[in-house]
Amino acid sequence: MQAATMEIRPISITEMHEHAQALLVAHWQEVGQEKHRRVLSPDWTRYYEAEEKNVLLAIGAWVDGELAGYSLNFVAYNMHYSEVLSCQNDLLFVDEKHRRGSLGGRLIKATERAAKNCGAHEMLWHAKPDTVLNDGLPKLGYSVLDIIHCKEL
Predict the structure, then answer these.
(1) Residue 70's closest CA among 47, 119, 103, 101?
(2) What residues have CB less than 8 Å from 92, skipping those under 6 apart?
């Protein structure tokens, strides 16, 4: 049996749009909250605009030519600390069938490297409570910066 071919590299929003539909649905089904009002409907126009403005950092993880995971991030100067360029994660997901190995960790590390290459001073991740990501980030040197609370109005 031949080993799987893995590639982690920057991707365009066009690639994401064309190859990630099933992954986006799986991602939403797995960790989406308040699904009665937070219905999956990506605003592709705004993603394309962010890419055009060079504030979107998108990384794809491919296994045997198939998109197996993604990391979408926004790079911008912090509104309160105007000298701090932040790379803030919007989406991070690895298909369940590819989680046993190191793909998720490699995707995080690739995102960090790309953010640093963009000049970012910090990497920010959103993590749902009680997830592998939330439990794993402290092991990678991350600490809690903010906690977000939500109330439906």
Answers:
(1) 103
(2) 69, 70, 71, 72, 107, 108, 111, 125, 133
Domain 6-140 superfamily per CATH: Gcn5-related N-acetyltransferase (GNAT) (3.40.630.30)
Regions of the chain where pLDDT drops below 50: none
Looking at residue 16, what is its pLDDT?
A: 96
Predicted confidence (pLDDT) per residue in 46-89, tens digit:
999 999 999 999 999 999 999 999 999 999 999 999 999 999 99
Strands 6-10 and 56-63: antiparallel
What are the sequence ranges of the domains in the chain? 6-140
pTM flag (> 0.85): yes
Q: In what order do the strands lie in the sheet with 122-124?
A: 6-10, 56-63, 66-77, 85-94, 122-124
Residue 114, burial from CB neighbour count under 10 angstroms (0-12, 13-18, 19+): buried
Q: Is 136 helix (H, G, I), strand (E, B) or coil?
A: helix
Q: Are 73 and 58 in contact (CB under 8 A)?
A: yes
Structure tokens at 124: 């920010």
